[in-house]
Automatic annotation (TrEMBL), chain A:
Signal peptide: none annotated. PANTHER family: 2-OXOGLUTARATE OXIDOREDUCTASE SUBUNIT KORB-RELATED, SUBUNIT OF PYRUVATE:FLAVODOXIN OXIDOREDUCTASE. One of its GO terms (biological process) is cellular respiration. Transmembrane segments: none annotated. It comes from Lutibacter maritimus. It holds the Pfam family TPP_enzyme_C. Keywords: Oxidoreductase. This is 2-oxoglutarate ferredoxin oxidoreductase subunit beta. GO terms for molecular function: oxidoreductase activity, acting on the aldehyde or oxo group of donors, iron-sulfur protein as acceptor; thiamine pyrophosphate binding. SUPFAM superfamilies: Thiamin diphosphate-binding fold (THDP-binding) (SSF52518). Coiled coil: none annotated. Residues 67-217 form the Thiamine pyrophosphate enzyme TPP-binding domain.
TrEMBL record, chain B:
Residues 15-198 form the Pyruvate flavodoxin/ferredoxin oxidoreductase pyrimidine binding domain. Keywords: Oxidoreductase. The lineage of its organism: Bacteria, Pseudomonadati, Bacteroidota, Flavobacteriia, Flavobacteriales. Residues 255-349 form the Pyruvate:ferredoxin oxidoreductase core domain. CDD domains: TPP_PYR_PFOR_IOR-alpha_like. SUPFAM superfamilies: Thiamin diphosphate-binding fold (THDP-binding), TK C-terminal domain-like. GO terms for molecular function: oxidoreductase activity. InterPro entries: 2-oxoacid_oxidoreductase, PFOR_II, Pyrv_Fd/Flavodoxin_OxRdtase_N, THDP-binding, Transketo_C/PFOR_II. The keyword tRNA-binding does not apply. It comes from Lutibacter maritimus. This is 2-oxoglutarate ferredoxin oxidoreductase subunit alpha.
């Protein structure tokens, strides 16, 4: 069979996500951010809400999210995305507002903004990409860095006694009454990515139904920061990150699982 | 219908925000400005005009809420007092960098640190010399009465949207707390979302409908682009200096001696020059209404006429630097001001004018000194 007979529109099984721009991603090869971006943009496209969605980009690796996502985006100061999103959702209640934040942004410097936006039950979606490290600044210890994990600021491994335990922000916010939906997903395999997409879809549906805050954590990798090959990073993530940050729904329709 | 009311400065400011057609206010309590959010929460402007009022978890959250609403083209305001403004400075720098319109109010108290809850003008440097990081300036309005606390809100919004830049109303605990009669402006209608998109859709993030996407950011990783952004900001500031400088001259025409003072110090100094005139001293007052842009040229010109200048400020000597820069050493310039929350009296100001300027050797021999320099 001639290859041109196969390349026909009716045989197409996948194409570039419509809401992703043609700008080359700035992420390292193997990084989960690209997939997480794609999933969010697929959901927004499929729900037909791209003209009514306002995104809030963080400080961190995904600071340039606005270069890749073809929607209106404002870029917040480090950790403050939930406060920025709060004001947008309050002054434009008919819009879909989401933040896209990493673990340093959301769980360290932005802890107060995160907890209080969650506690007020703002009608927004928070997408929280947790890779246990500060990627952008070169691999420093994050609040989510695992015990014993080596980073440039925990060169002998994270020691609980002096550095505290890795923070489970997702479990913490799940206990707040204003939070309607909390789930933890990953995007490192097709199967996981499909589940994560469903979770993101549910989150945006909650916004449509004005249910309050939806919180989607995506446990991800950082092969550059972890100093591993992309594949080794994914295996390490499954073996070490998932036991501490178990995947699955934590709160659905306002009820803790 | 405009109304005449007896109000506290902070309340007049809050009411003016509603009447200016503001879309949102985000704040956090701190003495001596808490009446702003208390008034708004009591008044429930959401019912009157649809204006959103929210008590944030911190000053930091409040200024970032301002950033969020401003990103979408909404008319948004926050207020605080000195320590709270220090916390907001990161967000203010972002607002300037991202070129967003917003109104920030500082009802100044004494510092540094937790300082005192009493009035002060010790945040002059912070207000006009940047405060936050990077190459930016704020347009700074300094009200000297409860009436101006009310009037300047709409003026501040107009400037903020004219330049797409944050504007600071620099008040203090005295003007914030004191009661005076105030003529309130008529209620302005808030823009509908459709009107807002029509006006600001070329930059605001309102949802990418029938246009390319809008992006609000202060980040430019390419140095050339960042430099272009800084140059763009500098052009705005130049235009502000040309078009929107505000100041007031009181009894300056025949003045031999000049007091420069803003805000509550200007009110006190106005009384002081009246007392001086009764004693036969020809004293005048130049009141900068905007602290940036600063009335450099009027001061430069007055320096040819007067024998000496006293900069009267409720601080240890901050604005005096701008007075000196403006007059370019043409006349002696001295500072007088109480600190720690103590408010100087008109008598103290007059005494300082006499001691530091009129009876100053340098002032008395100034004309000779000047000719020897020339």
């Amino acid at each position: 069979m001639n290859v041109l007979d196969i390349i026909k529109p009716e045989n197409q099984v996948f194409c570039k996500t419509k809401l992703m721009t043609d700008t080359a991603l700035s992420y390292c090869p193997g990084c989960g951010h690209g997939t997480a971006h794609n999933l969010a943009m697929e959901v927004i496209d499929e729900m037909g809400i791209s003209e009514d969605t306002i995104g809030v980009a963080p400080v961190g690796c995904s600071v340039l999210a606005y270069d890749f996502m073809n929607i209106d985006i404002t870029q917040a100061a480090h950790g403050r995305a939930p406060a920025v999103a709060t004001a947008i959702a309050r002054t434009w209640p008919e819009k879909y507002v989401f933040t896209y934040q990493g673990d340093g942004d959301l769980a360290a410097i932005g802890t107060a903004e995160t907890i209080h936006a969650c506690n007020r039950g703002e009608n927004i979606v928070i997408i929280f990409v947790n890779n246990g490290i500060y990627g952008m600044t070169g691999g420093q210890m994050a609040p989510t860095t695992l015990e014993g994990m080596v980073s440039s600021t925990s060169p002998y491994g994270r020691e609980i006694k002096s550095m505290g335990s890795p923070l489970k922000m997702t479990e913490l916010v799940a206990n707040l009454p204003g939070v309607y939906y909390v789930t933890r997903q990953s995007v490192h395999t097709h199967k996981h990515a499909r589940k994560a997409k469903k979770a993101i879809q549910k989150a945006f549906e909650n916004t449509r139904l004005k249910k309050g805050l939806s919180f989607v954590e995506i446990v991800s990798n950082c092969n550059s920061g972890w100093k591993m090959t992309p594949n080794d990073a994914n295996i390490w993530m499954e073996e070490h990150m998932f036991p501490y940050f178990p995947l699955g729904d934590i709160k659905v329709d306002g009820k803790l699982k | 219908m405009s109304e005449l009311k007896l109000m506290k400065g902070n309340e007049a400011l809050a009411e003016a925000a509603i009447r200016a057609g503001a879309d949102a206010y985000f704040g956090y309590p701190i003495t001596p400005q808490s009446e702003v959010i208390e008034y708004l929460m009591t008044e429930q402007p959401e019912k009157r005009t649809g204006m959103v009022v929210l008590q944030a978890e911190s000053e930091i959250a409040a200024i970032n809420m301002v950033y969020g609403a401003a990103s979408t083209g909404k008319k948004v305001m926050t207020s605080s007092s000195s320590p709270g403004i220090s916390l907001k400075l990161e967000g203010i720098s972002y607002l300037a960098g991202a070129e967003l319109p917003a109104v920030i109010v500082n009802v100044v108290r004494g510092g540094p640190g937790l300082g005192t809850i009493q009035p002060s003008q010790a945040d002059y440097f912070q207000s006009v010399k940047g405060g936050g990081h990077g190459d930016y300036k704020l347009y700074v309005l300094a009200p000297a009465s409860v009436q101006e606390m009310s009037d300047f809100v709409e003026d501040a919004f107009d400037i903020a949207f004219k330049y797409r830049a944050p504007v600071l109303i620099l008040s203090d605990g005295l003007i914030g707390q004191m009661m005076e009669k105030v003529q309130l402006k008529d209620q302005k209608t808030r823009l509908t979302n459709e009107e807002l998109i029509e006006k600001y859709g070329n930059w605001a993030v309102t949802g990418r409908k029938n246009r390319e996407r809008n992006i609000i950011t202060s980040l430019d990783l390419q140095s050339e682009k960042m430099e272009a952004r800084v140059h763009r900001l500098m052009k705005k500031y130049e235009q502000m200096e040309k078009e929107d400088l505000r100041y007031e001259k009181i009894l300056c025409d025949d003045a031999d001696y000049l007091i420069v003072a803003y805000g509550s110090s200007a009110r006190i100094s106005q009384k002081a020059i009246e007392l001086a005139r009764k004693k036969g001293i020809k004293a005048g007052l130049l009141r900068p209404i905007t602290l940036f842009p600063y009335p450099k040229q009027p001061l430069f010109e007055l320096a040819d006429q007067v024998k000496g200048i006293l900069s009267v400020e409720l601080n240890a000597g901050q604005m005096i630097e701008d007075v000196k820069l403006s007059v370019e050493h043409k006349v002696p310039v001295e500072h007088f001001g109480r600190t720690g929350g103590i408010i100087h009296t008109p008598e103290e100001v007059l005494e300082a004018l006499e001691q530091k300027i009129i009876n100053n050797e340098r002032t008395r021999h100034h004309k000779t000194r000047e000719s020897s320099i020339l």
